[in-house]
Amino acid sequence: MEDSDGEDPKETPELPLEILVYILSFLHAADRKEASLVCRSWYDASQDLRFQKNVTFSFPASAASLALVRGLARRPRCSLRISQLDGFSVSRSLLLEVGLCLGSKVDSLALPGSSITEASLLALLPRLTSLRRLDVRGLDSLFMSGAFLSREEHRRQVRSALSGLEELDLSDLRYLSDLTFNRLTGCTPRLRRLSLAGCHIAFEFDPYRGCPVGAVEDSSALLSLRNLRRLLVEQRSTLRALDLSRTSITPESLRIIAQVEGLVLEELHLQGCKELTDYSVEALVKHQPRLLRLDISSCTELTSRSVEAAAQGLQALTHLSLSRDWRITEKGLAELLSVSSLVSLDLSECLHISGTELVKGLKGPNAARAELQVLNLRSCTYLRDLAVFSLTQLLGDSLRELDLTSCVNVTDLSVCAIATYLQKLEVLRLGWCKEVTDWGLLGMVQKSLCEPDDEMGDRGPRFTRMFGNMGFFQPPRMPFEERPKLLTQRDLQQFQQRAGASLLALKRLRELDLSACGKLTDSSVTQVVRFPELQRLSLSMLPELSDASLASVGRSCRSLTSLALSHCPGVTDRGVAQAAPFLHRLQHLHLSCCNNITDSLPYRPSFLQDVVPADAALQTSENAGRLQV
Question: How much is the pTM?
Answer without folding.
Answer: 0.84
